[in-house]
TrEMBL record:
PANTHER family in alphabetical order: HTH-TYPE TRANSCRIPTIONAL REGULATOR TRMBL2
Lineage, opening ranks: Archaea, Methanobacteriati, Methanobacteriota, Stenosarchaea group, Halobacteria
Occurrences of domain Transcription regulator TrmB C-terminal (ranges): 111-355
SUPFAM superfamilies given in the database record: TrmB C-terminal domain-like, Winged helix' DNA-binding domain
Residue ranges occupied by any Transcription regulator TrmB N-terminal domain in the UniProt entry: 10-66
Protein name in the entry: TrmB family transcriptional regulator sugar-binding domain-containing protein
Residue ranges the record marks as coiled coil: 80-134
Keyword Metal-binding annotated: no
Length: 357
C-alpha cells in the first residue's frame, strides 16, 4: 500500500482529508513543528493547528511547546485498535447483509425461496418446536440427530412425530439404534432412496430442500395452510405410505390416536365390516365458525368417494377424494372431515379410538 492508498484508507476509516494528510506525514517525520508539518503535507498552515488538536483528541498524536507548537506521533496502538474494530464491524455488517438477503422474513410470506440449506433447517427447527399436533419429517440419520432436541420438545408437547429416514446420495442407509427413537418419535419408516429434506408441522408450515446431488440448489419455506397440503400429500405418498415401519409407539389396542382421517379409515374399516361398535373422540374445529370443538361418541358411518371391493381395506390412494365420518353423541350427530374440510360439521385435527366393542 503506497502513501496515497494509506491516506485513502484512513479517510474511509473516519479521518478527514486533512487529518489523514497530517497523520501520515507526522508518522514519517516522527516529530515536527506545526509549520514544518504543514509544509510537509497538503494541510494549509491556517488549518494545521485545528487538525493537530483533533488528532490529539483521538489520542493519535501528542503536542508540546518548544518555542512553538510541536507534535509527535504516539504509539500507534490506539489507531491500530480503531482500524481493527472498524474492520471487524464492517465485516460483520457484510455478513449480516448477506444473511438478510438469503433469509427473507418467512413470517411475512406464504412462500419463500431461499438459497441456503441452513435457512431451511433452522426454520424446520422452529416449526417442530412450536408444533402442537403433528410433525412429518423426511431426513437423513445425521439430520435426525441434529433435530433431536427440537423433536424432544414436540414429543413432550404430545405431538405425533412421524419420521421417514433416507440415506445421503451415494451412501448406504445406516439406521440409529432403536433407543435413539424413544421419547422422541411416534413412528419411523425407512426409505432406501435419497430424498429431499421435508418438514411439515401441524400441516400449516412446511420446509423443503432437494437432496445434496440435485441439479438445482434452493429451499422452499411455506407458511400457508393450503400450500402445506401439497407437501403433506407428497410426504404421504412418496416418502411414507409404501415404506417399511422400523419403529412405532402406536398401540394396537385403544386408545389409538390418529392425526390423519385416511389412516383412521384404513384401520377402522375392518371393525365396521365386522359390525363392531367404535367409540371415538374428535378434536378439531367447527367448519362454519372455526371455533375449537371436542366431541365424544360412537362412529355410525364412514364415507369415501372411491369405489373399492367391500371386503378389502381401502388403500391410501383410494382415499384421495372426499372422506368423512359420522359420529353420534348423546345429544347430536356430527359429520367429520379431515384437513381443509368444508362440507362437514367438523374439521378433525386428532381422532382417538377410545374403545371397540
Amino acid at each position: 500500500m503506497d502513501t496515497a492508498e494509506l491516506r485513502t484508507a484512513l479517510r474511509n476509516a473516519g479521518m478527514s482529508q486533512y487529518q489523514a494528510e497530517a497523520y501520515v506525514a507526522l508518522i514519517q517525520l516522527g516529530a515536527a513543528s506545526a509549520t514544518e508539518l504543514a509544509d510537509a503535507c497538503a494541510v494549509p498552515t491556517a488549518r494545521i493547528y485545528d487538525v493537530l488538536r483533533d488528532l490529539e483528541a483521538k489520542e493519535y498524536i501528542e503536542t508540546y511547546e518548544q518555542d512553538s507548537l510541536h507534535a509527535r506521533a504516539r504509539d500507534p496502538h490506539t489507531v491500530m485498535n480503531d482500524l481493527k474494530n472498524r474492520a471487524a464491524q464492517l465485516s460483520e455488517a457484510a455478513s449480516e447483509i448477506e444473511a438478510r438477503w438469503q433469509q427473507p422474513a418467512v413470517d411475512r410470506h406464504m412462500l419463500s425461496i431461499v438459497k441456503r440449506f441452513e435457512t431451511v433447517f433452522n426454520r424446520a427447527e422452529e416449526l417442530i418446536t412450536d408444533a402442537s399436533n403433528e410433525v412429518q419429517l423426511s431426513v437423513t440419520p445425521e439430520q435426525f440427530e441434529e433435530l433431536r432436541p427440537a423433536l424432544a420438545v414436540a414429543h413432550e408437547n404430545d405431538v405425533l412425530v412421524k419420521i421417514s429416514l433416507h440415506p445421503e446420495a451415494g451412501c448406504e442407509l445406516e439406521l440409529p439404534e432403536i433407543e435413539a427413537y424413544e421419547d422422541i418419535v411416534t413412528e419411523v419408516r425407512k426409505r432406501t432412496l435419497p430424498s429431499p429434506f421435508v418438514a411439515i408441522a401441524d400441516r400449516t408450515g412446511a420446509c423443503f430442500a432437494p437432496h445434496a446431488n440435485s441439479v438445482n440448489t434452493y429451499g422452499v419455506l411455506v407458511d400457508d395452510y393450503t400450500l402445506a397440503y401439497v407437501f403433506h400429500w407428497y410426504f404421504q405418498t412418496a416418502l411414507w405410505e409404501v415404506w417399511d415401519v422400523i419403529y412405532s409407539t402406536q398401540s394396537e389396542a385403544p386408545p389409538i390416536v390418529y392425526t390423519d382421517i385416511r389412516h383412521f379409515i384404513q384401520d377402522v374399516s375392518p371393525c365396521i365390516r365386522n359390525g363392531e361398535e367404535v367409540s371415538v373422540s374428535i378434536s378439531g374445529y367447527e367448519t362454519d365458525t372455526h371455533d375449537p370443538i371436542d366431541i365424544h361418541g360412537t362412529l355410525s358411518d364412514v364415507y369415501y368417494t372411491a369405489v373399492s371391493a367391500p371386503k378389502k381395506t381401502p388403500s391410501f390412494s383410494e382415499l384421495a377424494g372426499q372422506v368423512s365420518l359420522t359420529v353420534d353423541t348423546d345429544t347430536d350427530s356430527y359429520t367429520v372431515g379431515g384437513w381443509g374440510a368444508l362440507l362437514e360439521d367438523i374439521e378433525a385435527n386428532r381422532i382417538t379410538i377410545e374403545a371397540i366393542t
